[in-house]
Amino acid sequence: MKNNKLIAPSILAADFANLQRDIEMINSSEADYFHIDIMDGVFVPNISFGMPVLKAITKHAKKTIDVHLMIVDPDRFIDTFAALGANILSVHYEACTHLHRTLQAIKAAGMKAGVAINPHTNVALLEDVIHDIDLVCMMSVNPGFGGQSFIENTYKKIAQLKEIIFNNNASTLIEIDGGVTDQNAEKLVKAGADVLVAGSFVFKSDDPKSTIKKLKEITNK
Ligand SMILES: O=C(CO)[C@@H](O)[C@H](O)COP(=O)(O)O
Ligand SMILES: [Fe+2]
């Protein structure tokens, strides 16, 4: 799994009036995950969509469901997201007082446990729970919106996190989320990224399926 770089189109940039069409496009593409952003208007200054929409997505989606929760007090909804079909559930480090307990609860509910970190959060804060984290969703923009510019400091953070994972003999995947394009994809995987989330770059392109294929080729050559 480590040598197969993964592409996760972000549904936030899909056409919600044609959601089933866009889901089928991802099903038939080389994408690996459906990346699904849930925002509550409190942890981030935006509201995306909630449980009924996630239920509709998981009904049709045929790939790994990667849910990125941008909500306060995510413990309230862990079992709900498991029941809705999430395979990976990422909570924000900044939203969890008892992160270790939250990670155990995600695993007990049958999902892989992810931790998302804001651009200002130092990766060293994850070291003591690195064995409990299946995936770190490293934000390369400030969470809340699609279509923002990639923050260059992310490369340094990937290298630092890679070292922590290596030094602890952990198998945590590094996912990069925000502003990913064909211009930075190769540099990101060379720095140590395993999964690239891409929203606007995929869905605003003329041919989203070909764009996913292109990202897959760039990252796996
Ligand atoms: O979590 C988020 C934003 O908060 C992301 O998953 C975005 O949806 C990525 O969109 P692009 O930056 O690729 O347009
Ligand atoms: Fe996301």
Automatic annotation (TrEMBL):
Look up the domain of life of the source: Bacteria
Q: What class of enzyme is it?
A: isomerase
Q: Which reaction does it catalyse?
A: D-ribulose 5-phosphate = D-xylulose 5-phosphate
Query: In the record's cofactor note, how is the cofactor described as bound?
Result: Binds 1 divalent metal cation per subunit.
Pathway per its UniProt entry is: Carbohydrate degradation
Q: What keywords is this UniProt entry annotated with?
A: Carbohydrate metabolism, Isomerase, Metal-binding
List of residues binding a divalent metal cation? 35, 37, 68, 177
Cite the GO molecular-function annotations of the record: D-ribulose-phosphate 3-epimerase activity
**Which Gene3D superfamilies does the entry mention?**
Aldolase class I (3.20.20.70)
Q: Which residues does the Swiss-Prot or TrEMBL record annotate as the active site?
A: 37 (proton acceptor), 177 (proton donor)
One Pfam family matching this protein? Ribul_P_3_epim
Cofactor dependency: Zn(2+); a divalent metal cation; Fe(2+); Co(2+)
Give the NCBIfam families listed for this entry: PRK05581.1-4, rpe
Give the family, as the similarity comment puts it: Belongs to the ribulose-phosphate 3-epimerase family.
By its UniProt entry, which PANTHER family does this protein fall under? RIBULOSE-5-PHOSPHATE-3-EPIMERASE
Q: Which function does this protein serve?
A: Catalyzes the reversible epimerization of D-ribulose 5-phosphate to D-xylulose 5-phosphate.
**Protein name in UniProt:** Ribulose-phosphate 3-epimerase
The species this protein belongs to is Mesonia ostreae
